[in-house]
Design a protein that fits this description.
- The relative contact order is 0.09.
- The protein has helices at 3-6, 16-23, 29-51, 55-68, 76-99, 103-116, 121-133, 137-150, 155-182.
- With 184 residues, it is mainly α.
- Helix 3 (29-51) runs parallel beside helix 5, helix 6 (103-116) packs antiparallel against helix 7 (121-133) and helix 7 packs antiparallel against helix 8 (137-150).
- It is built from 9 helices and no strands.
C-alpha cells in the first residue's frame, strides 16, 4: 500500500492532514468535479473487485481513488464531498485489509476516518475487528462500547461484543493453564 497516500508516511512533526494539504495541488472547481467523477469510477471498480473477493485489486482501486481526490478543494461543498468520499474509501480499504488479515493496516485505515468523525460506527466496528484479529481484546471492546453508545441497537456490534468476550475468556483460560503448567 502506498504510504504517501495511505497515511503510512511519518512526517516532520506535522499531522497527516497538514502534510497532505501542503503536498496537494490547488485546482479549479471544474477540475475538482472531474476528479471526483474519476474517483467515483475508481471506487466503483474497487467495489466490483470486492464483490469478486479480489482484495488486492480492490485495494489498488481504492488507493487510486484516494490519489485522485488528493487536492486542495476549491470550496466548502467540494471539501465536504471530498472528505465523505475519503472516509468511504478508507473504510473500504479497511474491509479489504481485514479480509487479508492485515489487521494493523486496517486499524490505521479506520484511524483516518475516526480522525474526522471520532464516533463513526462502521470505523469503530472495523477497527474493533482489527484489534480482535491482533488478540487485543480489551482495546477492541473499547471500540465496540464507543460504537454502541452511538448505535445501541446495532446487532452486528452486539454479536461482535459477544464474540470478543468469548475470545478474551478463552485467551485468559489458556494463559491460566499455561501458568499452572509452569508451576507444577
Amino acid at each position: 500500500i502506498n504510504a504517501e497516500y495511505m497515511g503510512g508516511g511519518r512526517g516532520r512533526g506535522r499531522s497527516w492532514q497538514q502534510r497532505m494539504q501542503e503536498e496537494a495541488p490547488n485546482i479549479t472547481r471544474a477540475q475538482a468535479r472531474q476528479r471526483m467523477l474519476e474517483a467515483e469510477a475508481q471506487k466503483g471498480e474497487g467495489n466490483a473487485c470486492v464483490r469478486r473477493r479480489e482484495w488486492d485489486m480492490a485495494l489498488h482501486s481504492y488507493q487510486s481513488a484516494l490519489q485522485t481526490v488528493h487536492f486542495v478543494a476549491p470550496g466548502s461543498a467540494i471539501r465536504e464531498q471530498q472528505q465523505a468520499f475519503r472516509c468511504a474509501c478508507w473504510l473500504n480499504v479497511a474491509h479489504c485489509l481485514l479480509q487479508k488479515e492485515h489487521f494493523r493496516e486496517a486499524i490505521e485505515s479506520c484511524d483516518h476516518v475516526l480522525s474526522v468523525d471520532p464516533q463513526h460506527v462502521k470505523a469503530l466496528y472495523r477497527r474493533a475487528l482489527g484489534y480482535g484479529g491482533l488478540k487485543e481484546y480489551d482495546t477492541a471492546m473499547e471500540d465496540v462500547s464507543r460504537a454502541l453508545e452511538s448505535d445501541p441497537g446495532n446487532a452486528d456490534l452486539g454479536r461482535l461484543r459477544g464474540r470478543l468476550m468469548q475470545q478474551r475468556s478463552a485467551q485468559t483460560e489458556r494463559e491460566r493453564a499455561q501458568y499452572r503448567r509452569m508451576f507444577e
